[in-house]
Amino acid sequence: MLRRLEEYGITINPSKSHFDQTEIQFLGYYVSKEGIKPPVLKIDIIVKYPKPTNIEDLRRFLDVLNFYTTYPKPHLFKRHSMHISRT
Description:
Protein name: Reverse transcriptase domain-containing protein
Helix content: 25-40%
Organism: Euphydryas editha
Domain Reverse transcriptase: 1-31
Strand content: 5-15%
Strand order of the largest sheet: 1-2-3
Structural class: alpha+beta
Shape: elongated
């Protein structure tokens, strides 16, 4: 691989490079040979998020949730019936 990079005139910074890794964190996700997954901490935050009580809270929660919809894991999220009244 290093020869190919050199052939195309691409240089790398050895102090910023990591080789022989089984998993790396990239743009907020973990990437491994098994695939791409979100950090467990982020999923825990979503699972433990307090029940939204108004439209602003609901929007905030949905924004966070929508970011991770690439990884639907329905068993991680309890279904809550919500009734949010507009005041």
